[in-house]
Design a protein that fits this description.
Strand content of chain A: 25-35%
Number of domains of chain A: 1
Distance between the termini of chain A: 64 Å
CATH class of chain A: Alpha Beta
Number of strands of chain A: 13
Helix content of chain B: 25-40%
Number of strands of chain B: 17
Order of helices and strands of chain A: EEEHEHEHEHEEEEHEHEEH
Radius of gyration of chain A: 22 Å
Number of helices of chain B: 7
Largest sheet of chain A: 9 strands, mixed
Radius of gyration of chain B: 22 Å
Oligomer: heterodimer
Largest interface: A-B, 91 and 101 residues
CATH superfamily of chain A: HUPs
């Protein structure tokens, strides 16, 4: 089974998030790392390929500036190759535009399954995998916590508000994986060394036969109008525990009628 | 604004609160509010949406073992061709709601604005508000292209505001088979029962984060939640780490909670988390790091070691509880 995994490279957790004051989109310059929530779909993909007894994992990713550091992390885990669409035109791309670029990349691949995280850790839009599925006319199972291959289809468990549902799905398909559902392997030293020489194909928007206009670059179809200071809660009392802070907590719970007053 | 469509999701025969909240929001913005629902005629009484001033409900019918996303998005897509277009479509941020919004967005080639917490009409355009940077900054956004904007609204963002309006007209619509995109089949549905109140509606939420140090220590959170008749919650960090299931997650990605009291233990307060709990009436936070952002929203912040504070607090509450029960 050949699996394509959508991975996003995002600013590392140490870089504070910031908005560009002009375009009012998130600043994504500087070193980028693999979005931790994507490491679960990479892991899931590697396991499914192992389980199916053949095939490999291809990473697909979109950035404006050619950054590959985050891809190397996933290659070191065991993905065979990466395809990166890098184009300054893609700066400020919205979720539907991203889905269009990813769908065009999937069409060039021979993938039985496309895996993705449920949403990125910087933008949180959370619609890209299913938008991509619609563009490809594929079935999709979103918010999945477990996937197995059974013959020519998948058996999945999809998160619901009340618990989960068991969903079967024919291939090809898009599956979005919730974080924390598999233990992610650490890249071995051998894996890290091998990743340096794994192929990373870099394409432009034009290579995919797409036109920038149709992608809805920032401002073309939706725009951030303003950023304003939110009304803040009045600041509370901060105490340092010297052994009896629990009593203060109990007092507060009593004063808010969460627990009764008498002892 | 003339017309807004809302997605009316129901579960176990009941229209979800978030759908009623969407109706409450739409009524303030548009003269006509219509809804799209799904389920068999006996399953859900959509006419009751009239009480929130919804005039008409388009019912897609029983979806059988299909997933909601492809079937409902296909039906809405067809309706947009055969009916006067609404000015906006509002969808609740549920698992199925997000699927419908995403499929519809791609189908009609209109982007989506997600994580919406407020909507206002400014200069004839619908402007959405989104909490960013831990709720310290509100970003406002709007669609600039053509077509009805699709807004995915977080639960508990709007009042339902029952007006006691007349029953809504329910119109059955028949949509074409979406084809391969509808290939997935729901084989079985599982309800995971839990002791105590649900995270969505609990008066008290006790949440734990990475500061707990280990998966084993989460049982202290569960025990404390039990003692205050609350629900246990979690930050994304420990869900990602596999300590607790995704269903416990509070935040942008997980659930939005508005309890009377929110107790956060070992949660630094990343944006992602604060957005899901900052509207709690009272917040108590305990963390080792005095500069943790969670302290900015806390009514009571305790800088301290969880390994000290949490067991003592549990012991104190347990002692009170046993005393009370013998009274």
């Amino acid at each position: 089974m050949n699996v394509a995994v959508c991975v996003k490279q995002i600013p590392s957790a140490e870089t504070p998030l910031a908005f560009d004051p002009t375009s009012k989109t998130l600043v994504r310059t500087g070193p980028l790392v693999l979005d931790e929530s994507d490491s679960f779909s990479v892991e899931m993909a590697l396991r499914l390929v192992e389980q199916s007894g053949g095939g490999d994992v291809t990473l697909i990713s979109v950035v404006p500036d050619g950054e590959t550091q985050g891809l190397r992390t996933a290659l070191a885990m065991g993905a065979a190759r990466a395809v990166l669409v890098s184009d300054p035109l893609l700066s400020g791309l919205d979720a539907l535009g991203t889905a269009k670029v990813l769908a065009a990349m999937v069409r060039r691949l021979d993938a039985d399954l496309v895996l993705a995280g449920t949403e990125s850790s910087d933008g949180y839009t959370g619609t890209v995998p299913v938008q991509m599925a619609e563009l490809l006319n594929y079935p999709a199972v979103s918010f999945v916590r477990h996937v197995e291959i059974s013959g020519d289809h998948l058996v999945t468990e999809r998160q619901t508000e009340e618990g989960f549902e068991e969903v079967t799905c024919p291939l090809p398909a898009v599956v979005s994986v919730t974080a924390g559902v598999v233990e992610v392997r650490y890249p071995s030293f051998k894996g890290i060394m091998a990743a340096k020489s794994k192929p990373v194909e870099v394409l432009t928007v034009a290579d995919l036969g797409l036109e920038a206009d149709s992608l809805g670059i920032a401002g073309a179809r939706q725009e951030v109008i303003a950023l304003e200071q939110a009304e803040l809660r009045p600041s509370g009392e901060i105490i340092t525990d010297s052994g009896d802070a629990f009593e203060t907590i109990v007092e507060r719970l009593v004063s808010w009628n969460i627990i009764s007053e008498h002892q | 604004m003339k017309t807004i469509w809302i997605l009316a999701e129901a579960r176990n025969g009941r229209i979800l609160p978030v759908a009623e909240e969407l109706a409450g929001a739409a009524r303030q913005l548009a003269s006509t509010v219509e809804a799209v629902g799904w389920g068999g005629a006996e399953a859900v009484d959509f006419a009751t949406l009239g009480t929130y001033d919804v005039s008409r409900v388009f019912r897609v019918g029983d979806l059988g073992d299909s997933l909601v996303g492809p079937r409902v998005a296909a039906a809405v897509g067809e309706m947009l061709e055969s009916h006067p277009k609404p000015d906006a479509i509002l969808v609740g941020a549920t698992y199925d709601g997000r699927d419908v919004a995403a499929r519809l967005s791609a189908k009609i080639d209109v982007p989506v604005l997600t994580n919406v917490i407020d909507l206002n009409e400014i200069d004839d355009a619908l402007v959405s508000t989104h909490a960013v940077f831990g709720g310290t900054v509100n970003a406002t956004a709007r669609f600039t292209g053509s077509g009805p904007g699709i807004f995915v609204v977080r639960p508990k963002s709007f009042e339902r505001g029952d007006t006691g309006g007349a029953a809504a007209e329910v119109v059955d619509i028949v949509a074409a088979d979406p084809g391969p995109s509808d290939g997935a089949r729901v084989v079985s549905r599982h309800v995971l029962t839990q002791d105590g109140p649900s995270l969505d509606s609990a008066e008290v939420v006790v949440a734990g984060g990475r500061g707990l140090g280990s998966k084993e220590n989460y049982r202290l959170i569960e025990e404390l939640a039990h003692l205050v008749h609350g629900a246990p919650g979690a930050s994304r960090a420990i869900v990602d780490a596999g300590w607790v299931p995704y269903s416990h997650q509070v935040g942008q990605t997980g659930k939005t909670v508005k309890p009377e009291v929110y107790l956060a233990f070992g949660i630094s307060g990343a944006t992602q988390h604060l957005v899901g709990m900052k509207d709690a009436k009272h917040i108590i936070a305990v963390d080792r790091d005095p500069s943790a952002p969670i302290f900015r929203v806390a009514d009571l912040g305790v800088v301290g070691d969880l390994a000290q504070v949490l067991p003592k607090l549990i012991e104190a509450l347990r002692a009170r509880g046993s005393h009370e029960s013998t009274n």
